[in-house]
User: Fold this.
Amino acid sequence: MTQLLNGKVLSQQIKDEIKETVAQTTFPNGRPPHLAAILVGDDGASRTYVNHKIKACEYVGMNSTVLRFEQDITEDGLLDEVQKLNEDHSIDGFIVQLPLPNHINSDRVLQAIDPAKDVDGFHPINIGRMTLNLPSYLPATPMGIITLLERNNVETSGKHCVVIGRSNIVGRPMSILMSRSAKVGNCTVTLCHSRTKDLEQHTKAADILIVALGKAEFIDKHHVKEGAVIIDVGITRIEDDNMKRGFRLVGDVHFDNVQELCSWITPVPGGVGPMTVVSLLQNTLLAAQKAVY
Assistant:
């Protein structure tokens, strides 16, 4: 019988745990944890993501600030704003919401963030510390996936994990985390991408299949072996006149097509997405406790 890895339910449970911790903790700075977000331009999806994060902060009792800038802000201007947050002792951690406009070098901006405030876990120092299994802020989406597997007691040791997608935000860190020596880890990992030949051959060998491809409903029953654990990171808006909103959200995995084959599967929406937000809260809590740096 297929079981759901329900991120919506688990994220609420973890938010309640964080809320209790915040209420009962005296933090070094004498105030609740404070998360800031930089939002550039007027991208609807980015606004939605940031709003989810701010609402989550409010729920758990954290302070939050959103700094909004016009689409035409210069790269140097944005770097100045990042430096202000680096030096602001009232801010424990902050994120720069991606994507940024094309005229701004995202790597340069992310590398300008103080690693001690990099609660998105994207800075090379945090990625390096993660690779060496040292205390660090883990990237939020991979961290959320690890938590989903751990809290649902999904066995990973000795399993073959196939990751589709090699982004620095999900695919690469996910492959490292699943191979590390840890409660969730000890996998043999195969990392697939757009140049991988015979993709189906790799995916059908996977005990755990993590898909971060960005192609709606690309993975179907022909890619999946019976009993596999499926983690679907993708989310795409598909027009649907039968829906009141005029669209529906789907993942990279054709859920209805593969559901009966799986032992565990994440729904879209309500799977990985809520866990990404709650992981950001967990990293902000660590920053406020000065538990990493």
About this structure: The radius of gyration is 19 Å. Residues 140-273 form a domain with the Rossmann fold fold (CATH 3.40.50.720). The mean pLDDT is 96. The longest strand covers residues 34-40.
